[in-house]
Amino acid sequence: MRWATRAHCHVDRAACAWLIRRFIDQEAQFVFVDDPDEIPDDANPFDIGDVELSHHKGECSFEAFLRRYELADPVLWDIAQIVHEADLADERFDAPEAPGLDVLLRGLSMTHADEDLLALASPLFDGLYEYGKRAILLGREPS
Amino acid sequence: MVTESKPPRAQWLLLAYRIPREPSTPRIAAWRKLRRLGAAQLLDGLVTLPLDSRNREQFEWLAGEILEANGEATLWVGELASRARERELTARMAAAVASEYEAVIAEAERVRGQPPGSGRRSLARLRRELRRIRARDYFPPPDRERAQQAIDALAEAVEEVTR
């Protein structure tokens, strides 16, 4: 399936793209547009304009995906807190990882085009997921 | 001879909005977001931020949330016709963060004057506060550097106690 999102990806869109490819649509292809009017008819839009998979009621798009696809995995909800704080910094959650993740992705967005950025961010989120999974299984910080 | 070059005209984001008085939750959420972003209030229902991709995205989300709350919101991009007015606006925004830096400096000095032991937690809190202010500091005043120095001095004092 084709998925359309706003160009110049940052943490929320990078996290959503990772989530799509890993949990929703392994064959996902991404289209980057500057304006909601440019979203192709056959593409599923996210993190852009007034669509379901976007910001709502103070939540970021990653959270919208977890709700829409009923992904109840607690590790994903832990990652959602980090993404939320990295994107919105409204201190709804305590996520000390967020400022670091924000800077890492902001930096990558300066040196790489969107498609490359998503490819580079993907193993980062794989690692975050693995870390979160082990933390839950162990009941303590994994090493 | 040196040719006098004018600084490039800044581009601004303007958000014109109206939020229903009740319920108050979306109003308060919008107000908090504007404050966190360091937006300058130009008129009742008109706020501005320097144009960059982050601010643009944040204002777009805010506009969307205002519409969801049955309000009205339009986002504009523009520049000020008068350079003098632009200087006034940037000075006003710099003064707003400067007073926040001043509060950090005063608090850092107060904690430094207190008996040793209580400083570490205050240091962590002040560092977080400084980071929040820096995120909305678009026209850094000299107080920015002074606030960093005040925090560094406090950090040194805390380290000495621990040693």
Walk me through the structure.
The complex is a heterodimer of chains A (143) and B (163). Helices cover 53% and strands 9% of the residues of chain A. Chain A is globular. In chain A, helix 1 packs across helix 5 (114-138) and helix 3 (74-88) crosses helix 4. By secondary structure, chain A is mainly alpha-helical. By secondary structure, chain B is of the alpha+beta class. Chain B has a four-stranded antiparallel beta sheet with strand order 2-3-1-4, with helices on both faces. The chains are: A mainly alpha (143), B alpha+beta (163). Chain A binds chain B through residues 6, 8, 10, 49-50, 54-58, 89-90, 99, and chain B through 29, 32-33, 36, 53-54, 57, 61, 64-65, 67-68, 131-132, 135.
Key traits:
heterodimer; A: about 140 residues; mainly alpha; three-stranded parallel β-sheet; 3 strands; about 55% helix; about 10% strand; B: about 160 residues; alpha+beta; four-stranded antiparallel β-sheet; 5 helices; 4 strands; about 15% strand; flat
* Number of helices in the DSSP assignment of chain A: 5
Low-confidence stretches of chain B: none
Oligomer: heterodimer
- Overall pLDDT of chain A: 96
In spatial order, strands of the major sheet of chain A run 2-1-3
Largest sheet of chain A: 3 strands, parallel
Shape category of chain B: flat
Helix content of chain A: 40-55%
List the helices and strands and how they pair.
The complex is a heterodimer of chains A (143) and B (163).
Chain A: E1 2-6, H1 11-24, E2 29-33, E3 43-45, H2 61-68, H3 74-88, H4 98-111, H5 114-138
Parallel strand pairs in A: 1-2, 1-3
Chain B: E1 12-18, H1 24-37, E2 40-43, E3 46-50, H2 53-68, E4 72-78, H3 83-112, H4 119-135, H5 143-162
Antiparallel strand pairs in B: 1-3, 1-4, 2-3
